[in-house]
Structure formats: structure tokens, C-alpha cells
Amino acid sequence: PEILIISTGSIPQIPEKILEDNSIKNIDSNYSQNFTTAHDVLRGTRSVANHVVIIGGGATGAETAEFLAIQGKKVILLELSDEIAKDIDPLRRPFLLQQIEKLGITIILNSKNIKINNGYLEVEVDGTTKRLEEVESIVFAVGVKSDTQLKKVAENCMVQYYIIGDADQPGNAMDAVFAGAELALRICNMDSAPETKSEKLSNKTISELAAEITRQIRLKLGIDD
Fold first, then answer.
1. Fewer CB in a 10 Å sphere around the end CB: N or C, the chain?
2. Among the listed residues 124, 119, 85, 88, the one whose alpha carbon sits nearest the alpha carbon of residue 101
3. Strands 120-125 and 128-132
4. Alpha helices in the chain (DSSP H)
5. Final residue before a domain boundary, out of 121, 144, 167
6. CB atoms near residue 217 (< 10 Å)
7. Residue 36 is part of which domain span?
8. Residues 61 and 165 both lie in one domain
């Protein structure tokens, strides 16, 4: 190929602080098998038990909590800050919060110093330690890191390459759409990007946004529908 575009996305991660915590070293190997990530749960590659604690209350954690609660799981959602799902689409957020309340999901905000033990968790909330009993599965939804494996391969190849989307820097779906549009224009040697950041486009869904950007690129290229 003349040009290689790397858009391999990102990889979910588990905080080093939790992995290095002394308490986790004493966990029975059978219990540690109950650890997984939100990405694996949502993809259906890992199942969880009936009593679940999700660590991380961002968009992914909140949507995973909803996903599991709909299945009848008892879900507790731990969030470091004082609010959940702050990074979700503003049009989607009110409906998600309403659904979380309706499903009876337990939310614990301002969670700090999480310690995992065999069958239970300890978490500090506003200076007080809470003990969460009968925890059967733990789901981590605490961020992602760029998947850079193909970048290392591309560096050794005699080909021009670009890295976009989460593979370059983790973001949301709209960031990925913008990156793809801007790269398409660069490859086509165009000077100006489409109207990606305008207020007009900010209220569109991802599919509508992608369609609009595609239309603008086709117009710039002189391609008729």
C-alpha cells in the first residue's frame, strides 16, 4: 500500500494503584478470576455473577451498570468524583441517569482507597470506610490506553502511515469521526477541514455527523451523488 492508516483503537486498563495494593496480593486465585473489564462485558466475551461492583463511573461504567442491571444483576457503581457519566453525550445522559435510578443501581460517589479482598471490598467515602459484602464479580471501567502494537510494525515498513482515533489518543466517538474526516482531507491535499466543530453539527448523532462530513468531503472533491 502507499498509505497505511492505523485506527486500532484502545485497550482497557486496570489502575496500577489497585494492582500494586498489598490487599490484592492476598486474593485467592479463584476469586481473582472474577475480575474483568467493562469492554469485555459489553462485548459479551466475559460473563459476571449476580453481585457486581463496577469501579469507574464514567460513560462506560455507567452504561455497563445499566447493561448488567437490565439482566437482573445487583450492581454497585463506584465513582471517584462527585458525579457519574460526566463524559457522556448530553442528550443521552438524562435518560441514562433516569434508567439507572429506575433499575435500582447503587451509586457510591467520592470513592477512594479501594481495597479488594476475598469476597468483599473496602472503600473510603468522605473519610469513612465502607465494607461491601458478597461481591462476586468486579468490573473495571477506569479508562483506556492507545493500542500501539501496529505503530511499531509500521515504523519498520517503508510506507507512509497515519495514526488516528483512540490509537492516537483516547477520546469519544465524535473525536474519531473528526479525525477520520480531517485525515481524508489531508490525503486528498485539501487545505480546509469540513465543518466538523460547528454548533450546527454538535447536536447531531454520530451517524448523522458521519454522513454530513462525508457529504462535505464529496462536495470538496467534486464527487456527485
1. C
2. 85
3. antiparallel
4. 16-20, 22-25, 29-32, 38-43, 59-70, 93-102, 149-155, 173-187, 199-202, 206-221
5. 144
6. 18
7. 11-144
8. no
pLDDT of the residue at 196 = 46
Fill in the DSSP letter of residue 107: E
Report the pLDDT value the prediction gives residue 1, as an integer from 0 to 100. Answer: 66
For residue 73, the cross-strand partners are none
Mean pLDDT of each 10-residue bin along the chain, 225 residues long: 83 66 52 81 92 93 95 96 89 91 97 85 92 93 84 82 85 74 72 47 59 71 68
Residue pair 4/164 in contact (Cβ under 8 Å)? The answer is no
The verdict on 44 and 132 lying in the same domain is: yes
- The answer on 150 and 87 residing in a single domain is no
**Which residues, including other chains, have CB under 8 Å from residue 170's CB and lie 6 or more apart?**
10, 143, 144, 145, 146
pTM above 0.85, yes or no: no
